[in-house]
Every structure is written in structure tokens, then in C-alpha cells.
Amino acid sequence: LSGRGAGVRLENITKRFGDFTAIDGVSLDVRPGEFITLLGPSGSGKTTTLNVIAGFTEADAGRLLIDGTVIGSLPTHKRDLGMVFQHYALFPHMTVAANIAYPLKQRRVPKARRAPLVQAALESVRLNDFAHRYPRELSGGQQQRVAVARSIVYRPRVLLMDEPLGALDKKLRDRLQLEIRRIHAELGTTFVYVTHDQDEALVLSDRIAVFNRGDIEQLGTAEELYERPRTLFVARFIGEST
Length: 242
Ligand code: ADP
Fold this sequence. Notes:
This protein has 242 residues and is α/β, with parallel strands linked by helices. It is 36% helix and 26% strand. The protein folds into 2 domains: 1-80 and 157-242, Rossmann fold (3-Layer(aba) Sandwich), CATH 3.40.50; 88-155, no CATH class. It contains 8 helices and 10 strands. The strands form 2 sheets. A 6-stranded mixed sheet has the order 6-7-8-3-9-10, with helices on both faces. Adenosine-5'-diphosphate is lined by residues 17, 20, 22, 40, 42-48, 211.
């Protein structure tokens, strides 16, 4: 499933809900193949930023570019991206293989080409033996791995993840963090990952964008944020990790 990652560039993105400004002129340059995490407290604008990239939310101002192309109001399914959410939302009446094949059907990939893609996606998440099982027969962690397989099966060049481990207990979270790191390394896809968990961000990311009140307070590697926090907020927020 190897594929190049795409660059994702946000230029001065603003999104308001009524009188309330959820994100206020956010700019961010994600390099092709990078693992970037949007980290910050609840309500700081991380999900809104991700939703603008996904096309779920239309920005009031600013531009989004993927690989240098202005995206405008292109619908979500025409953007070259995959998505994983906290709630994996698999179809309960469909097998694992059918769940993973679903986006291929949506994208009108010819039937003959679907099986090898599903197989490769199952291999990526190490669930080869689970193709004919049903979601209810799997643990939460395994279901989330199916959701990851479903999001990468059509080989998007950008993968967006919104608190994908949020519904899992600590031990599973730790295991899946390693899985996510490995999958990122194997695919070469650009990952944009949302979490409020400092430790998760530190373990996973090439770079971290620290959000506060609708804007990015600092962008840097874990080391930079620890050693050279630019604001008191960053020092305190990063310092809260255990
Ligand atoms: P985070 O992901 O960092 O927790 P969000 O991006 O979800 O933050 O939300 C940022 C702010 O925008 C929050 O105060 C939230 O209540 C508000 N918000 C998000 N979506 C909507 C919406 N659809 N309508 C009104 N307010 C919203």
C-alpha cells in the first residue's frame, strides 16, 4: 500500500459559528509524508481545523492547499484523504472484508481490483485472519484497526485521525500507538492527527502544533516544545504530560 504523502497547507483559516470564532487565522504547512499532531485542550479548535481539511466544514476565510492545489469547496469524497474517528462506525451486518471494501465500492473501483486492495489493507493492520469475521466478534482495538484498514484501502495520500484511540483503555492505546506509527512508516502517507493527550502526541509525531483558543501557539518537534516553549501556555500544557 505504499504511496507518497501529499503536502497540506493551511493559510489563515478562520471559522466562526455565529459570533464565536472557533479558529482564528490558522496557518500550518504539513510536509509530504509527515506525521503532524494537532494538540491542545478541549475546545481549542483542533477538530474544526481537521474538519476544514476534510471538507466537512467550510472556512469563512483563508485557503487550503493540498500538494499546492487550492482545494476550494471540493466535496469530501473527491479529496485525496482518508479518515479515522474515535467511534469507528463499522457496519455491524457486514464482514470485516466487506467493511473495508465499502469505500472501494463507493469510489467505483472495479470489482476485480477490490480483493487485492482489501487483502493489502488487512495485511497493513495485521488482521489477515479476520476477513470473514463480523465487527461484534472483535475487540475495540481490533475494530479500530479495521476502521484504519477501511481508511487506507483506497490509498489516500493524506490520513486524518480524530482522537482514534479515545474510546480505548490505556493498554490498548499504547499498543495501537505503536501500530499507527508503524503504519505511517510503511505507507509514507501524510498523517494529521488530533489529540488532547500530550503523551500520545509526543510518542507519535514528527511535529506537534499546540492549539490554544482557536490558534496555533507553537509548532515544533516534541524536543523543541519541551526545551524551548515559546509561551507560558505551551510550557504548562506540554509540562502536564507524565
Ligand atoms: P477541539 O477539537 O480542540 O476540542 P473544536 O474544534 O471541536 O475543539 O471546537 C472549537 C470550538 O468551536 C468549541 O468551543 C466548540 O464548542 C465550537 N464549535 C465547534 N463546532 C461547532 C458547531 N458546529 N457549532 C457551534 N460551535 C461549534
